[in-house]
TrEMBL record:
Belongs to the chloroperoxidase family. GO terms for molecular function: metal ion binding; peroxidase activity. This is Heme haloperoxidase family profile domain-containing protein. The keyword Metal-binding applies.
Amino acid sequence: MHLTFALFAITALLKGSSAYPSNSDWVTEHVKRYDGFSDNLAVRLGSYQAPGPNDSRGPCPGLNTLANHGLINRDGKNLNSTEIKLAFPRGFGIAEDAIEVALHNWEVVCEYIKGTTCGTAANDGTFILTNLTILGEPHAFEHDHSYSRQDYRQNWAHGGITDNIYFNSSEMQTGLDVVGYTTSNPPKVAAANYQQFNDIRLQRESIQNQRDFPGWFQQNVPPTLFETGFIFGATFDRDSSGKMKESTPMARLKWWNFWFSEESFPTQLGWVPASTEVFNSHFCTSVSSAVLNAAVTSLPKSLPAGATATTFPPPANLPEGDPSPTLALFQSAPYAAATSPAAIKSAAAKRGLLAARENQASTLTLPASVSSIVASEVTAKPSLILAAIQLAGAAPPKFNLYQQSIDTVTLKAQIAAAQSYQDLVIAKITSLASVRGRV
């Protein structure tokens, strides 16, 4: 998973929290529509099947899970919006109202990439999403400081682009470390509350703000907060009917970690889909607001400006009139879980398999002006990076999504400035390395 731009931004988000949860007449009516779901989870959720090398997967663990279970096309291609809309309640127990904005923006991103309409011939508001991978287009649906993905311009000293589409266990663990979660059995920490998730959110912003190429980091809190609401909805402690056991939800970390890392439903850990009577748009926005307003234990260093704000203007949908500037997508075979969810190996073995896969996926193509020896020099000598930045000057300012909405013209200028600055820094690195006899 930004923007007028902020993809998952729902208007109620961040205006303040109303009482949690509430059951509107709409929700009651909606729940009745799904009384027909089978109590047999094998029937309701389908069987897990890892994606093949020619299948398409994207930056959204929810969509990837639905594809891995065959609730939408298993190859992740040519996805009808109606099928997506039905698959989320069936798989996760989330009410349709909670994914309306996401659906709209998936269509807009599809049309950005395709250059023409993605609407169906029926002209009834439905559309065909070309594939899941295109949702990795930077700073549209995809966004920086994800809970489980690298940023598009991370590992910036090497030039090139990073795998911002597929699951990365190291990125996921940086968040889990904040609350002391490890994959021990049983885990030392079972669940995370609002305060702990706010700690995780800020830690991810801090880390990525430091890791990304100067001028490329895009601070984008609204979709992160909605994703937080989705995570709580997908993993709160529940009875067999999907209703909350407690009055205030907490995210069960073992379920969350399994779901993201395996991109499969954690049924073998006792999980069942939530009730759509609980897991709806109001749930997501209420949880998001509660997390945002929760006092944090401590503030990490190098936070972007405004990271600790507690209110935000309601972001709009992605603009439809002017196509977004598109950037090259990361290319590799889709991520597949290191082990079958039905036969998970030891935590150590699993970490080894994930690390091997991620090292391969993160291999970067260097610009022609930068040789591998320069990349090694940059990695080994941070002083070279600092010297190059001093020569290049300060990075261009980034648009602050906390204060105003973004328009496409501004975005194009912003991306052009970031690209120019990156080229300048890489040129300075190359020059300095040459002077030192490395090229």
